[in-house]
Amino acid sequence: MDETDRAIVNGLQGGFPLCERPYAAAAARFGLEEAELIARLKKLLADDVLTRFGPMFDAERLGGAFTLCAMSVPQHDFERVAGLVNAHREVAHNYEREHRFNMWFVVAARSREDISRLITDVERETGYPVLDLPREAEYFIELRLTA
Amino acid sequence: MSALDEALVRATQAGLPLVAQPYRELAATLGISEREVIERLQAMLADRRIRRIGAVPNHYALGYRANAMSVWDVDDREIEALGPEVGALPFVSHCYRRPRRLPHWPYNLFAMLHGRSRDELQRGLATIWALIGPALRRHEVLYSRRILKKTGLRF
To answer: How many helices (H) and strands (E) does chain B have?
Structure first.
C-alpha cells in the first residue's frame, strides 16, 4: 500500500458520487485517472485491505427486526449451547466474551414476534435464560478508520 | 420497501461494479434506467437506509486489532444528552441505548471501541468515564474471546 492507496482508503469511505462516471469524478480528487482508481480499488479488495466497495446499508432501516441477546453459560456446557444457538438461521453473529454473561449473539428476523419465538426456543433447547436487549436509540456516527 | 429497491439492495450488497459506468451496469441487470438507479440510491441515502457509499476497510488489515464492548449504567435523565457525545468519539464504532434487565443486567449504554492496542482502548475508556462524569453509576468492559458465528446480515 503506497501513499495514494492510503489517500484512497482514508478519503473514500463515504461520498462516492452518484453520477454517470463516478470513478472518474472520484479519481479527480486524488489526481488519478478513472482507470487507475478502478485498478487500485480492485487491488485493495484482492489484498483484503478493503472488505467491500459500495453502499453500506442500515439493516434495521431496510426492514425486519433485530436484537442483541446475552446468556450466562457454564463452561462445561458452553460448546453444546453454542451449537444449539448457532443452528438458528436468524442468529447472525455470536461471540464468546470474558464475563459472567459469556455468550452474546445478534438476532435478525422478519418481525418482533419471530424474535420472541426464537428466544423461547433457545431457552427451551438449552435450559438457560436469554437476556433480550434490543436497541432503543442509536447514537453513533460512522467510524472512519485511518490507514 | 418496493420490490425494485429490494432488488437494488441485493444487487449492490456485495459491492458496486468496478467499471466506468457502474450504475448503468446495475440498470441493465435490473431492467431499469441508469437515472432511476441513481435516484433510488439518492433516496436511500436521504432516508438513511444507506449509511454511506464508498470503501469499507478491513479493520484487521489497517491494524485495528483490539476491540471491546463497554457497558455503562447512566442516569436515565442524562443518557439522551450524553449518548450522542459518547457516540461521536473517534474510537467508538457503535453506540446504543438498550434496556436494563434488573437484577441481572444494570447497563443501559453500549459503546463498541476499536483501537490498535488494548492500551489505546484503555485510554478511550478513561475518556468515556470522564465524559459521563457524575451521571455514571458503574461500568464494565467485555473483551471478546472468540467468534462463534459470523454470517453477515443478508437481505
So the answer is: 5, 5
Residue A110, number of CB atoms within 10 A of its CB: 11
Asked if B149's CB is within 8 angstroms of A92's CB, the reply is yes
Name the strands in the sheet holding A91-97, side by side, starting at the edge strand that comes first in the sequence.
Answer: A131-132, A65-71, A103-109, A91-97, B136-150, B66-74, B109-115, B92-97, A137-138
Mean pLDDT of B102-113: 97
Chain B residues near residue A22 by CB distance under 8 angstroms:
22-23
Among partner residues A48, A58, A135, which is closest to B98 by beta-carbon distance? A135
Map grid coordinates 440510491 to a residue.
Answer: B41
Write down the pLDDT at residue B153. Answer: 56
Q: What is the pLDDT of residue B151?
A: 75
Burial class (CB in 10 A: 0-12, 13-18, 19+), B67: middle
Distance CA A100, CA A83 (A): 19
Residue B154 grid cell: 443478508
For residues A126 and A142, what is the distance between their CA atoms, to the nearest angstrom? 36
pLDDT over 70 (residue B155): no
ipTM of this model?
0.82
